[in-house]
Amino acid sequence: MRVDDQLVSFETLRELADEFDDDRVCRSFVDSFINMWEARHARLREAILTCDVKAAMDAVLSVKTASAMAGAKPLSALAAKLQQLIQCLGEEMRTSRTLALLEEIKSCGEATIVQLRLWYSGSAGSGGR
Prior knowledge:
With 129 residues, the protein is mainly α. It has one domain: Four Helix Bundle (Hemerythrin (Met), subunit A). It is built from five helices and no strands. It has helices at residues 10-20, 23-49, 53-69, 73-89, 96-121. Helix 1 (10-20) crosses helix 2 (23-49) and helix 2 (23-49) runs antiparallel to helix 5. The two termini are 27 Å apart.
């Protein structure tokens, strides 16, 4: 991933806030996304390492869907790639390609969280809106 890639579509977050007609709901979702990132990634990593197809699919779909809702399009796209690999490889999913993609997801996720915190949550939850 290039440094200049946009990690978060803030337009998507604005649309989410508008959909609920309440900025607090969107802010709460973003806060939950941030707070759940490490657990989501750990669950995905564990499922891949143990070749648990069902758990891996559940975890990757969680990352993909939540990322899309949070406007994290690159992270969602990486999760979609991993989803395809899991579907193709099944119980043989623990490959160098899958593990490399898992690391790319981790890096992208961490950078996404930083961008969300800087722009949206702010140090005391007063954010960029």
